[in-house]
Specification:
Elements: H1 2-13, E1 17-24, E2 31-40, E3 47-54, H2 62-78, E4 85-89, E5 99-103, H3 111-116, H4 121-138, H5 154-165, H6 170-181, E6 190-192, E7 201-204, E8 207-211, E9 218-220, H7 223-229, H8 248-257, H9 265-291, H10 298-304, H11 307-318, H12 346-363, H13 366-402, H14 409-422, H15 429-447
Antiparallel strand pairs: 1-2, 2-3, 3-5, 4-5, 6-9, 7-8
């Protein structure tokens, strides 16, 4: 790939270049991100650049990369802080997949560092105001770079996507019915970034320096972006609802002060609910890329189990908070096994693998270390499912029966999901919510047992 980069970047700069330090960065479930330095043959100064390239199995097309380059130009014109585009390879002829090359922007993108490290304390004081101003600028961009099609109904879009997966998710059905019944008035369509959140912002000690990842930009309701910024997943454990850095009202005030249209907290909350549902469906989609073989990845596989987190968050929005019962304590690993098998038990073997992966994680930097951390979490998930799964399956069937659902297991969940969609259980919605919530928390007890103990 280095040769291809040297060719396309050299042509764009009008001088021969040599590529050095080509390094793949960690993260990125839908696109690969690489950093590198170009050294001009004429002795000019080195230049730090970043490559974004479509990942195998991603649904994005070559047109998406060409559109991203146009969007970044429109963003500059509207006053949105973005990296400078050096060159695009929309067909992937030179770089092996559709790609765009941009200038490197100094700063941090890892949200947990931004939200916790002392280095960014001053930035945290201004981030929510800067986010509101940046979104106001996004929403006044020229929309010529995005498809000039009528914005699709967002609730129907989510329902159709859920149906396409063929998986029953009663929690999402409850969310869809709430969203349908509590719609805010539609707004004139603007450019919507589609993924404006912590993790897609380059932040320095002075605050936001660049808005990244425009691959999901489209025409739509501008408040979608404000709601997405508030989704719990993008708070990374912070109690502050707006991106982990401020309140919803602070975000709205900054947005309006920078020229955005007036908006209510209830509107943002509705879009937060829809964004939570959307992120849950994206988790299913990412796992399907792995399961279908398009891109085998422990990261993508693990993301599938994060669906339950979004089910929990969506129920907290649409049904209100509920009592949080701690996850059951783990049994000693020596007891999690069955005859005729010898020790180590299955759980003890998994403990050993988890310990090894943790050692690898701590000793290997970058992407491999990140994936070792993910793999260790997967092993812990499997260990908990071996222990808790049989009792959880029995409890699920008992709960379904209490609602008059005759089928069991996954078939019973499908029957319940269909009944919720038809409205058959509307007169028992509180009871249904309790049943669905209990099952979601069983899933969380396996995939992420401490999740509902974190700040909302």
């Amino acid at each position: 790939m280095a040769e291809g980069l040297a060719s396309v970047v050299g042509s764009a700069l009008g001088v021969g270049v040599r590529v050095e330090g080509l390094t793949r960065l960690s993260g990125g479930a839908s696109r690969e991100t690489w950093s590198f330095v170009v050294v001009p043959a004429d002795g000019g100064p080195d230049r730090r650049l970043v490559l974004q390239r479509e990942r195998a199995g991603n649904a994005a097309t070559s047109q998406a990369m060409a559109v991203q380059a146009e969007l970044l130009a429109a963003a500059v014109a509207a006053g949105v802080p973005v990296p400078t585009v050096v060159v695009a390879d929309p067909d992937g002829v030179s770089l092996g997949a559709p790609a765009v090359v941009m200038d490197h922007v100094d700063g941090e993108t890892i949200a947990r560092r931004i939200l916790r490290d002392d280095e960014y304390a001053a930035a945290r004081d201004v981030l929510v105001a800067q986010a509101g101003a940046a979104l106001a600028a996004v929403h006044r961009m020229d929309d010529a770079a995005v498809a000039a099609t009528e914005a699709e109904d967002p609730v129907a879009q989510m329902r159709n996507l859920l149906d396409a997966f063929g998986e029953p998710h009663p929690a999402f059905e409850l969310g869809l019915r709430w969203l349908e019944r509590n719609r805010p008035a539609p707004r004139p369509a603007t450019v919507v970034h589609g993924d404006f959140r912590m993790g897609n912002l380059i932040v320095g000690t002075d605050g936001i320096r660049a808005v990244l990842d425009w691959e999901l930009a489209h025409r739509g309701d501008p408040i979608e972006d404000l709601g997405w910024f508030c989704v719990r997943a993008w708070r990374f454990g912070s109690p502050a609802v707006a991106g982990g850095v401020g309140s919803v009202q602070q975000l709205i005030d900054a947005y309006v002060a920078a020229g955005g249209a007036p908006v209510t907290v209830d509107e943002v909350r509705w879009w937060e609910a829809l964004g939570t549902l959307r992120w849950g469906l994206i988790c299913i989609l990412q796992a399907s890329v792995h399961l279908g073989g398009a891109s085998r990845s422990v990261e993508l596989a693990a993301i599938g189990r994060r669906t339950a987190e979004n089910e929990e968050d969506l129920l907290e929005i649409v049904a209100g908070p509920s009592e949080r019962v701690p996850a059951p304590a783990a049994r000693p690993s020596a007891e999690v096994g069955a005859a005729p098998h010898d020790r180590p038990t299955a759980a003890e073997l998994l403990d050993a693998v988890e310990e090894y992966l943790t050692e690898v994680r701590d000793g290997v930097p970058g992407r491999l270390g990140f994936h070792a951390r993910v793999a260790a979490n997967v092993v812990a998930t499997v260990r908990r499912e071996i222990e808790l799964g049989p009792d959880q399956a029995r409890l699920l069937d008992e709960r379904l029966a209490s609602l008059g659902i005759s089928a069991t297991g996954r078939a019973g969940e499908a029957e319940l999901a269909a009944a919720i969609r038809r409205g058959d259980l509307d007169d028992r919605v509180d009871e249904v919510t309790d049943v669905v919530r209990a099952t979601v928390r069983d899933k969380l007890a396996v995939s992420n047992p401490g999740y509902w103990e974190r700040p909302l």
